Sequence to fold (342 residues):
Amino acid sequence: MVAIRLFKKGDGFVQCLICAHKCRIKEDKLGVCKTVLNKGGELYSINYGILVAQSVDPVEKKPLFHFLPGTFSYSIASPGCNFRCLGCQNADISQSYRDGGYKPYLEYFKGLKRTPPEEVVESAIKANCRSISYTYTDPAVFFDYSLDVMELAHKNGLKNVFVTNGYYTEESVAAVKGLLDAANIDIKFFNDSSYRRICGGRLEPVLEAVKMFHENGVHLELTTLLIDEYNNTPKEVKDIADFIVSVSPDLPWHISRFFPLYKMKDGQVTQQESIINAYNIGKDAGLKYIYAGNIRLNGYEDAVCPSCKKLLIKRRGYSILENNVINGNCKFCGYKIYGVFE
Ligand code: SF4
Fold:
């Protein structure tokens, strides 16, 4: 176990400051994510260095469409999550402990291999990756390990990417300042009660984190999984789009198709028309870059120059078929395109 960096001592508890749950953890107890333990009045990460996923992904899979397009990102995850989303697509690694796995819990973790941060960075370099992504589960549950890998990654010329529910605090956003280069943050709903019921979180901290990361110069892209039953109304879609515009109309927005999974197996697959409607609502709100995800919709994965309207990047799935961005500018009219390009 490794001591965590962000905490505050209270009367009979220690408060974890990594995520917006801000758990007050008593002696021998765990936080909501079940990855932070109070032992002897100190907080420890029990899954430090335990990796349940290591793979080489196109950065477009995160999804990040404006961050080093066409490159690979070495993607890692540790088990657990600070959310309990009913439609989670990685429930086998994020929700296992909630579903009765990893028993006896603390003993189970003691026996697992821990991967030193150096090994992750070496593997990323060997695999010709340009970045390391902290993904699949939420980086909040392997935050201290991520910080250690991120520092080494930067020293070795690699960028760092969070794929996250965005449930961060002022303290954790500050801790990754200068280390985190890009993030894809979910804005799952624009409704606090849906956040509480479906994910076990709240809306406001996510919105605040988006603003704070943006102010700190982190390259941001946002994702919304469009679910008929919960957020697929013109008002909620417009509320999300308006919020993103209020931060910056440059921020790319990925609207993803929902497939019934995990505890939402009875839900409906999002219809193609719904994705197109949401795309149009986002465009009317003033967003410059919107992309359809988890669906093949000709033209809706492409980037178009907001100024001259010519095709910038043509994509099919994670592949780039044509790229007309030169040094971060539109090849045709010179318009500066939001993002980090070669
Ligand atoms: S990371 Fe979040 S959920 Fe886990 S203990 Fe810390 S505040 Fe609680």
Q: What stands out?
A: The chain is about 25% helix and 25% strand. The pocket of iron/sulfur cluster is lined by residues 16, 18-19, 21-23, 31-33, 35-36, 82, 140 (CB under 6 Å). The chain has two domains: 2-45, 53-301.
